[in-house]
Amino acid sequence: RTAAEAAPAVPNMSEITGAPPPRRARNLLSSYYGASVSSSGPEVDDLNIDGGGFNVDKYVSGLLSHKSLPELMQRGIAMVSEIKSLDSDMQMLVYENYNKFISATDTIRQMKQRVEEMEVSMGQLEGTMESISGASDSVNSSLSERRSQLEGLNGVKSNLAKLQLLMELPTRLQACVDAKQYEEAVRHHRRGQRL
């Protein structure tokens, strides 16, 4: 048998007081994040070594009055083991959170770099849009001048076509009368009056 098997089991304070055993992980996280462990209300257990209202003097005097020297030594050994375990857990929490912090810092740095790149791209896009807008205004101005010229030329062309019809009207009328197509001659005459 090993020394640990030969020694009697050392009770913790919850066994002495009859209180339920502490929830170590919850208490460890609660102490790390500063949250209150007690959900039962305003009562504070001053003998709960993991609690916020722990009373060292009362705990030690309870151990001294209820335990023998070998039991006290075993409790001391158990406490050293618990402290090492808690230190290990705390180091693990710090390590995990440190990695998360480094990862978050890297992510923020990448986001900042991307935002700066986007700002540069937006500046370039804004300059391009301004030059396109200027070119569009120039084209519109040029087209409006040409449009008015084209409208004027269309008016002249229309007037020339009408004049051409009027110039040809006497010849057509004479041809219709000679061919005895009087209805056609009347149609040409009416068309000429509308012009």
UniProtKB/TrEMBL annotation:
The UniProt keyword set, sorted, is: Golgi apparatus, Lipid transport, Protein transport, Transport
Q: Where in the cell is it found?
A: Golgi apparatus, trans-Golgi network
A GO BP entry: endocytic recycling
- Kindly indicate whether the keyword Transport belongs to this entry: yes
**Where is this protein primarily located?**
Golgi
Cellular component annotations (GO), alphabetically ordered = cytosol; EARP complex; GARP complex; membrane
Question: What's the domain of life for this entry?
Answer: Eukaryota
- Transmembrane feature ranges: none
Give me the ranges of the annotated region Disordered.
Answer: 1-20
Please give the Pfam families that the UniProt record associates with this protein: VPS51_Exo84_N
Q: InterPro entries from the entry? A: Vps51
Purpose of the protein: Acts as component of the GARP complex that is involved in retrograde transport from early and late endosomes to the trans-Golgi network (TGN).
Could you describe the subunit structure of this protein? Component of the Golgi-associated retrograde protein (GARP) complex.
Family membership, please give it: Belongs to the VPS51 family.
Protein's name in the database = Vacuolar protein sorting-associated protein 51 homolog
Q: Which organism is it from?
A: Phaeocystis antarctica
Taxonomic lineage is: Eukaryota, Haptista, Haptophyta, Prymnesiophyceae, Phaeocystales
